[in-house]
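User: I'm preparing a small set of examples for a lab meeting where we compare how different chains pack in three dimensions. I only have the primary sequence for this one, and I'd like the structure in token form so I can line it up with the others. Please keep the answer compact; I'll paste it straight into my notes.
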Amino acid sequence: MRLLISALLTALLLSGHARAQPDTPAALRQQIDRLQQQLDTLRAELNALRRSNAQLTEENKALRKALADRDTPAEKPGRPDDAPPHTPGTNEARTGGSAPAITSAWLKASASPDALFVALVIDYAEHFSDSPITDESSEKARERAVHEWTKNVRTRHTSQPEWLTRITDLGRPDDRGNRPADVTILDPITLKPNAKTFRLTFPEKFAKRLATATPREGQDAPPLLWKMHVELEPRPVFQPGRLTPGPFDYPKFIGPFAGFGYAVRVQSLAPISLEEATRAATEKKKALEPVDR
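Assistant: Understood. Below is the structure token output for the 293-residue chain.
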């Protein structure tokens, strides 16, 4: 940050020099005063960023505690009234609507890209909880450490889940036959979305299967769901200089110097009727019901 301020100050001085040379000591003093005001503004903004970072760290700790409290032996998993923890920017603020109805399966990092994001936020908060950013030196140390964290965290959270999904809006094939589509992951018990829909490109062999199973316009067909076996890999982005989410929050802010990224590789894809999925959900609900003694 000190280098940024110095560079800006130098640029301002050079640009002012190129436009006009101060004719008098008074004009030079006015120019110095203007530059000093801009420098003071930058320093104030830097302090505000550090305060914001401290607040985000506390929010991450609160999120981790909330998730830990939910995952207790006394809780009956899969309750219909379960809901994901609300964090600023992950539900209403990010999706523009209310959070989906979700069971406790949402708490697994492999449940969806959204769940993976929360897992990375928690991992980040735990990893850096003992090294807060308080000054320029600790800021630089955190930046170096986050660079390593973005590389090492991949192996800890890569998973190979099976998702029950609804796949819609199949796009046109590219020159290799790959086709994009909208994927909505469904909770296997409630059959309701457990995360927001995301766009995924399917390799040619799976794209052909989707195209064949998609009814043509005007053709009636029973609702069809898909079981997807995938590899879900976190790919956090190292972002030097980024201390806050910023106005657009892209990529999604994990913590200072880290943005969210991921990759989904489809390994198998099989159709399942809504009737079959409903029967399976009923059996799972029965298995979760307490046994009367």
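A couple of notes for your slides: The chain has a mean pLDDT of 77. The first strand starts at residue 162 and ends at 168.

User: Perfect, thanks.
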